[in-house]
């Protein structure tokens, strides 16, 4: 006689797999969330740490790291339900925690996304993916976190880290959740029919506008840093950019909340647009400056990824290629030509040009989506019946909605970001002092990215008289400031001697050939 089946993970329908759960959908959503997480950690951490001067490598990477961690805590405490919970206002959801077992293991639901026609009849039910709420919380957290990490790119090289620590949770609560609820969570822009497939407005336009606004209030870097801010490691910069590109498969592939046809089209279109934009930007660099720029190529890749995001799963692949061409040329023009001719744009020190690569590319993508979105693909993903782009019969109205949505996100971020920073500035200086800016990481964190000392920075005389360094057997020894300076001088001398020796060997070799 067979023994009765015991509960376990290999039962036909174990308790951990309720009837509504699609394990494939859940697996893909967790994978997509991980892909997006890798864009921030380590993607943008590596990118930021390598694209700046050596003396700012640690500070830049840490700004991204801190934003990622702080976003998660605020998100599960109140943020998620403000963005995807029950409606409180036309642009905001009711705050609440996402911490209890009863909430997180229940089927995911976005309650405010039900759409009703003018006669009051239900036209589209609320969004209810076939996986637990915990998967939704995780995926949307990754999108929220990368928004703040992108915003940080405007402020690298001078923002007081303590001010940044206060800014990130406030901006998440009062700015990001508003855009997310309005466009994704069932708010007024969602119900009106503004198309933002995966964050062209919610993530990229908001981070670009908020970053530019914050850069205005924080103030510029030192003049010497603005004039010469070359990357400390271009190869690592490319590696960080590569993680960002590949991670976008989760960014746009996870937006339909299922591994369906829309997700497949979105991932393909994402790669096509990125490649086309990178090539377009590189060609423009060669035409106008005589040589291709690696930094420019990474920027072109970024604008292509941003531009396709509002419509990745809603347009033909030839449209994605067209969007990539626009993404590689319009932001190139605003950054390389328009920016240098505008006194105001030159005054605002947007360190990594986030305004151009994210705000300009985000609006561009939203407008092009309003023109190129196909009715067949919209029918698979959009909540409102008969949505389509202008070129497929929607009339000029859809373009007006796209511009209206962009205007709301822009104005809201401009006002809220300014208010938050002005309030923080009453208690904490927004910008580091000039003496700290001359030193860099050592002044901000007491740490340096590389052992070599150079690049024009000064030694931080405000550090304690002695510092503990590792000794034999794990024991520490105390080095005086004088000893540290002597050691640094020795390292620089060794490098200089090595370079001089190489030069002598080269000259000798040439003479022998002659």
Automatic annotation (TrEMBL):
Top-rank taxon of the source lineage equals Eukaryota
The protein's UniProt keywords, in alphabetical order, are:
Ammonia transport, Membrane, Transmembrane, Transmembrane helix, Transport
* Molecular function GO terms recorded: ammonium channel activity
Checking SUPFAM superfamilies in the record gives: Ammonium transporter
Subcellular localization is given as: Cell membrane; Membrane
Residues forming the Ammonium transporter AmtB-like domain are 28-450
Membrane topology type:
Multi-pass membrane protein
User: Matching InterPro entries, A to Z?
Assistant: Ammonium/urea_transptr, Ammonium_transpt, Ammonium_transpt_CS, NH4_transpt_AmtB-like_dom, RhesusRHD
* Role, per record: Involved in ammonium transport.
List the NCBIfam families hit by this protein, alphabetically: amt
Q: What name goes with this protein?
A: Ammonium transporter
Q: Which organism is it from?
A: Oryza meridionalis
């Amino acid at each position: 006689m067979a023994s009765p089946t015991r509960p376990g993970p290999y039962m036909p329908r174990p308790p951990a797999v309720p009837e509504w759960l699609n394990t494939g959908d859940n697996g893909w959503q967790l994978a997509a969330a991980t892909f997006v997480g890798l864009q921030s950690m380590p993607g943008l951490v590596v990118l930021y740490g390598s694209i700046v001067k050596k003396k700012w490598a640690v500070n830049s990477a840490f700004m991204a790291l801190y934003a990622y961690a702080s976003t998660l805590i605020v998100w599960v405490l109140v943020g998620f339900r403000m963005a995807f919970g029950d409606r409180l206002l036309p642009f905001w959801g009711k705050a609440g925690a996402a911490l209890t077992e009863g909430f997180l293991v229940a089927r995911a639901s976005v309650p405010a996304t039900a759409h009703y026609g003018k006669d009051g009849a239900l036209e589209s039910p609320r969004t209810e993916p076939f996986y637990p709420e915990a998967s939704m919380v995780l995926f949307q957290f990754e999108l929220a976190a990368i928004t703040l990490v992108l915003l940080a790119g405007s402020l690298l090289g001078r923002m007081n880290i303590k001010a940044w620590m206060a800014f990130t949770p406030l901006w998440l609560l009062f700015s990001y959740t508003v855009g997310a609820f309005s466009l994704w969570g069932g708010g007024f822009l969602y119900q009106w029919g503004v198309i933002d497939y995966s964050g062209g407005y919610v993530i990229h336009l908001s981070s670009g506008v908020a970053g530019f606004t914050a850069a205005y209030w924080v103030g510029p870097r030192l003049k010497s840093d603005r004039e010469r801010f070359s990357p400390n490691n271009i190869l690592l910069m490319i590696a960080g950019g590569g993680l960002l590109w590949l991670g976008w498969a989760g960014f746009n592939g996870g937006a339909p909340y299922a591994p369906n046809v829309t997700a497949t089209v979105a991932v393909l279109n994402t790669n096509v647009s990125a490649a086309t934009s990178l090539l377009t930007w590189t060609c423009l660099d060669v035409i106008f400056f005589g040589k291709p720029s690696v930094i420019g190529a990474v920027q072109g890749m970024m604008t292509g990824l941003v531009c396709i995001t509002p419509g990745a799963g809603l347009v033909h692949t030839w449209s994605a290629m067209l969007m990539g061409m626009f993404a590689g040329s319009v932001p190139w023009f605003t950054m390389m030509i328009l920016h240098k001719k505008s006194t105001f744009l030159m005054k605002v020190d947007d360190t990594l040009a986030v305004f151009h690569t994210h705000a300009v590319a985000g609006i561009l993508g939203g407008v092009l989506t309003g023109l190129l979105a196909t009715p067949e693909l919209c029918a698979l993903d959009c909540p409102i019946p008969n949505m389509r782009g202008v070129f497929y019969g929607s009339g000029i109205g859809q373009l007006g909605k796209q511009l209206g949505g962009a205007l709301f996100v822009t104005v809201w971020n401009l006002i809220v970001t300014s208010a938050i920073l002005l309030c923080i500035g009453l208690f904490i200086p927004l910008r580091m002092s000039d003496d700290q800016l001359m030193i860099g990481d050592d002044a901000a964190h007491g740490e340096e990215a590389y052992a070599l000392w150079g690049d024009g920075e000064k030694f931080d005389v405000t550090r304690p008289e002695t510092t503990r360094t590792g000794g034999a057997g794990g024991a520490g020894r105390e080095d005086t400031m004088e000893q540290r300076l002597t050691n640094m001088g020795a390292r620089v001398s060794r490098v200089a001697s090595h370079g001089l020796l190489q030069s002598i060997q080269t000259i000798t070799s040439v003479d022998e050939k002659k």
